[in-house]
Amino acid sequence: MSQKKVLVTEKIADVALETLEAKGYQVDVNLDLSPQALAEAIADYDALIVRSATNVTADILDAAQNLKIIGRAGVTVDNIDIEAATERDIIVCNAPVSNIVTAAEHTFALLLACARNVCQANASMHAGQWERAPFTGVELYEKTLAIFGLGRIGGLVAERARAFGMNVVGHDPYCSPERAQALGVTLLEDVDEICAIADFISVHLPLTEDTHHMFGPQQFAQMKDGVIVVNTARPGIVDQKALADFLAAGKVRSCGIDVFEEEPCTMSPLHEFPNAILTPHIAAVTYEAQHRAGAQIAEYVWEGLEGSIVPTAINISPLPPDVVDLVGPYAPACQMMGRILTQINGEMPKVLKIEACGLLAQSDIRVLIAGLMDGLLSYRRVGSITPANAEAVAARHGIKLDVALQPDAEEYASSVRAMADGTEVAATVFGISQAPRIVSLMGYKIDMVPSKSSLLLRYEDAPGRIGVIGTLLGNADVNITTMQIGVSPDGSALVFVNVTGEVSDKLLRQLREAIPGLDLWRLAL
Ligand SMILES: NC(=O)c1ccc[n+]([C@@H]2O[C@H](COP(=O)([O-])OP(=O)(O)OC[C@H]3O[C@@H](n4cnc5c(N)ncnc54)[C@H](O)[C@@H]3O)[C@@H](O)[C@H]2O)c1
Ligand SMILES: O=C(O)[C@H](O)COP(=O)(O)O
C-alpha cells in the first residue's frame, strides 16, 4: 500500500507533525501557498490540515482527487466550504475545545487592557514619559457585562466575569435557562435592551447571516456612554466603521478587537485610535492551545484516514451538534475500552453490554456503540464503522448488544461502562485535554489515562510486589511513566502500568516467575 500523504498549510504545533509521521504518513508543511499553488499541490494528498488563513474552496476541492479528510487545527471552520466537501465525501473535522480557555483568557486580557488603558500607558512609558492621570481607568467590579453568544467561549467568559464581581447578562436564543442559571447569567432577549444597560460588551457569536453587523450604528447609539466593546469572535459581527465613528465621538470608551474583515490586516478604520486595542487574531495563540489543537487534530486525521470514527466530524456525522459535543469526546474513550477488552479477552465477545451513565444517558449513544465496536475490531477490521452501521457490524460479527441507560454516573457527570462476556471496563472524560480515563477495570476501581504501551497485572496482594515489578522492569530498561493500583476486598490487586521501552517476552516470563498466580497482559493502545 502506498504511503498516505498529509499536507499542512499553516503553522501548527510540532506534536501534530510528529504524531502523523509516527503513524507512517508523509507529512509536508507548505506555508503561505497561494490559492492557485494550493490547487496545484493538493491533488496528491490524502489529508489537509489548516487553521483560519487557508480558504478551502470548492475549486481547491475539485483539484483534490485523493483527499479524504480536512482537519482544522482550531475551532472555526468558516474558511472551509463544508457543503462542497460533503458533496465530495470529504470529512471536515476540527478540535472544538482546543483553544476555548485561551480565547476566553484573551477576551479578559482585552477587557482589562481597555478598562485600565494598559496599552496606552505602556506606549507612554516607552516614549520616556511618566504620566498617570490620563490613564485613569474604570473597574470591572459590579459593572454589567453583556455576553453575546453563551456557547463554549461565552460560557467561560461568564464564569471568569463572575470572579471579577461583575453582573453578567447574556443574549443567546439557543441557550437553555438551566445553562444560563448555572453560569450565573441573566438571559435577555432584546439586543437593544442589553446594549442600553451594558458597561462592557463581549461578542462570542458565530458569523452568520443573522449576526452579520449585529452591532451597527443603531446599536451603538443605544449603548451607554463610555461602553467598552470587545470582539474576539469573528469580524463582520461588529461593524468596524460604525465602531470607529462611535470611538471618535467618545461614546465608546475603548474597544478590544482580535479579528478583522481582511486578514492579514495592517490598516482599518480602527487603527488611528490609541484606545482601540488591536491584536492580530491571537486569541487562540498560546503554547497550550496550539499543542492541544495539534495533538487532537493529528489523532482525528489519523482516525479518518484509517476509516475509524472521527469524533468531531462536522459534515459526515448524522448526529446534531449538541449530541456530538456531549457524546463525541467519549468516542475515543470507547475505542480505547474496546481495544482493552479485545486484548484482555483475546476473542470477540458473544455479548457486549454497554451502559451510558449520567448525562450521556439522555443522549443518542450510537457514537459510543460505534467507538466500542471500532476498538474491539481494530485488529481485524475491514471497512469503516460509523454510528449508522455499528449495530449491523456487531450483528455481522455475532456480537449481541445489550444497551442500558443509567442516569447516575456516581462521582462523574458522565461515564461509559462496557462488559464483554464478563470482562468489565469503564471510562470517563473530563478536563480540556479530553483524554479518556479508565475508572474501573475488571471490577477494580482505578483512575488511569492509558498510554500507547501498558502492562496490566493481577495477583494476590502481598507486600513487596510493586518493588519486584519495578525492579524487573528497570532491569529490562523499561521505564514506568504512570502506575495505578486497584485493590479488591477479596485480597487481589490489579496494577495498570504505563511504560516506555520494549516489553519483551523474556520480561513477561520473569514477571510470571517472580509473582505466583500472576495474570498478565501486555496492552498496545
Ligand atoms: N479569535 C480567535 O482566535 C477565536 C478562537 C476561538 C473561537 N473564535 C470564535 O469565537 C466564537 C465563539 O466560539 P465558541 O466555540 O464559543 O462557539 P459556540 O458555537 O460554542 O458558541 C456560539 C454561541 O452563539 C450562539 N448564537 C448563535 N447565533 C446567535 C445569535 N444570532 N444570537 C445570539 N447567540 C447566537 C449559539 O447558540 C452558541 O451558544 C466563534 O465565532 C468562533 O469562531 C475565535
Ligand atoms: O476559530 C479558531 O479556532 C480561531 O479563530 C483561531 O484561529 P487560528 O487557528 O487561525 O489561530
Automatic annotation (TrEMBL):
Q: Which PROSITE patterns match?
A: ACT (PS51671), D_2_HYDROXYACID_DH_1 (PS00065), D_2_HYDROXYACID_DH_2 (PS00670), D_2_HYDROXYACID_DH_3 (PS00671)
Ordered alphabetically, the record's keywords are: Amino-acid biosynthesis, NAD, Oxidoreductase, Serine biosynthesis
Under catalytic activity, the entry for this protein gives: (2R)-3-phosphoglycerate + NAD(+) = 3-phosphooxypyruvate + NADH + H(+); (R)-2-hydroxyglutarate + NAD(+) = 2-oxoglutarate + NADH + H(+)
Q: Which GO terms describe its biological process?
A: L-serine biosynthetic process
Name all ACT domain ranges: 454-525
Keyword field contains Transcription regulation: no
Top-level EC class as recorded in UniProt? oxidoreductase
The metabolic or biological pathway listed in the UniProt record of this protein is: Amino-acid biosynthesis; L-serine biosynthesis; L-serine from 3-phospho-D-glycerate: step 1/3
**InterPro entries tied to this protein:** ACT-like_dom_sf, ACT_dom, ASB_dom_sf, D-isomer_2_OHA_DH_cat_dom, D-isomer_DH_CS, D-isomer_DH_CS1, D-isomer_DH_NAD-bd, NAD(P)-bd_dom_sf
Alphabetical list of Gene3D superfamilies matching this protein: 3.30.70.260, D-3-phosphoglycerate dehydrogenase, domain 3, NAD(P)-binding Rossmann-like Domain
The Gene Ontology terms for molecular function here are: NAD binding; phosphoglycerate dehydrogenase activity
**Listed EC numbers:** 1.1.1.95
Do you know which Pfam families this protein is assigned to? Answer: 2-Hacid_dh, 2-Hacid_dh_C, ACT, PGDH_inter
Entry's family note:
Belongs to the D-isomer specific 2-hydroxyacid dehydrogenase family.
**What does the record give as the function of this protein?**
Catalyzes the reversible oxidation of 3-phospho-D-glycerate to 3-phosphonooxypyruvate, the first step of the phosphorylated L-serine biosynthesis pathway. Also catalyzes the reversible oxidation of 2-hydroxyglutarate to 2-oxoglutarate.
Q: What is this protein called?
A: D-3-phosphoglycerate dehydrogenase
